[in-house]
Amino acid sequence: MTDKDALIQPDRGQDATPIHLVDTDGFDDWSKKLTASQRANLAAQKFTGKGYQTAVVPDGDAWFAVGGVADTEKLSAWCLAKLAEVLPAGTYRLATGDAGAALFGWQSAQYAFTRYKDDKDAEGPRMLLTKDVAAIDGMIAEAEAVNFVRDLVNTPSEDMGPEALEAEAARLAKKFDAKLTVTRGDALEKGYPMVHAVGRAAARSHAPRLIELEWGPADAPRIAIVGKGVCFDSGGLDIKPTSGMALMKKDMGGSAHALALASLIMGQRLKVRLHLLVPAVENAISGNAFRPGDVLATRKGLTVEVTNTDAEGRLVLGDALTKASEDGAGLIIDFATLTGAARVALGPDLPALFTRQDDTADALLEAGLAYDDACWRLPLHDGYREMLKSDIADMVNSASGGFAGATTAALFLDRFVAEGIEWAHFDTFAWRPAAKPGRPKGGAALGLRAAWQMLKKRYNG
């Protein structure tokens, strides 16, 4: 991962190559200030000021860069990202104004996952100078959190099993002087029976566990962050086809989001009492795998009839949400790569958001739009609760028929969050199937910055 500290630095008058930002409305007036040969150079590069267009223009013995943006008066997080991808290594500054939100995308665009190969062809960092010194630490922290999610999700399951998630939590606990508690293997059977049932078929090296981290003053508002940590999902005995397993290393994407958000909360010293919970399992197949038709006990005391072993994420989250509720959280936010239905409805870019309260949804949606991490709210429709009825247990884990799959999954989780608790559930994809400027193909943080900005505004405002 590129060293983010090298990518944005305070502007103290260092030598730097200028970057001019131009939109289509202002291109003609701006280009009139150039020499005839410079205008010809731009024409040869077919530069007209459209978003994400880039050009390099000679200027005597030097040169300057030009980037097309949608609106020079309102820079998005991504408007400098293409430049950060294609410009030569070096130091840059904007010719006028400051980068603002685009400081994030400048860093994000230079991410590379290099755990398994040498990045010998990389040109080196492109550093952007900024006069907004107060924004640097926060922007670096957000970029590091997003790249942390990418690193974890991109890592293959053999190297990112439950024990690896525990190691990441332990690293955070040590770094921020937090308390780490881990319940592993058969010790889960009594306290977290659904986590145990889903994870018990995995090899001993990938044994299931419930990972908890606590940090912050005891008298601060208590919040819980919960992340689905299914490190590989075969589907269980309701086995997935080969095509369905191809990306299942990313099924722990919810836990990656939760760990990254916890890191932001602790690193930026948010005024909260944090409770992080990650149920970490591998949904494997062996002689002791849980079966379709089994009835599972739960920490909450409900019983769940298993109608689909491939709907395992909601099971492990159920026990974790119960624990978060018991420990007095006033707000619970969970992240999970939970349903294909959410992807059918919203595609890969938009995480589905479910909340009990309108003001919770409004705050998260507003933060997402303001910080270029858009989410989309789907309904917790009470009328669909009957789809989860069981003839022999309190509920089934997966409704039949395929209707409203994202909503019925969220309604399942809702049963395990205590009444009166403010709750938000992100059904996120955690993956980008095609690259966009600043957003490479592969592991992706979707909903993370929205949640972070909402929490920061609420608890540090």
Automatic annotation (TrEMBL):
InterPro entries named in the record: Leucine_aapep/pepB, Macro_dom-like, Peptidase_M17_C, Peptidase_M17_N_1
Keyword match Metal-binding: no
Pfam families per record: Peptidase_M17 (PF00883), Peptidase_M17_N_1 (PF21337)
Record-level GO BP terms: proteolysis
Keywords of this entry: Aminopeptidase, Hydrolase, Manganese, Protease
GO cellular component: cytoplasm
SUPFAM superfamilies per the UniProt record, alphabetical: Zn-dependent exopeptidases
Domain called Cytosol aminopeptidase: residue spans: 308-315
One GO molecular-function entry: metalloaminopeptidase activity
Family recorded in the similarity comment: Belongs to the peptidase M17 family.
Protein name, UniProt field: Leucyl aminopeptidase
Organism expressing this protein natively: Croceicoccus pelagius
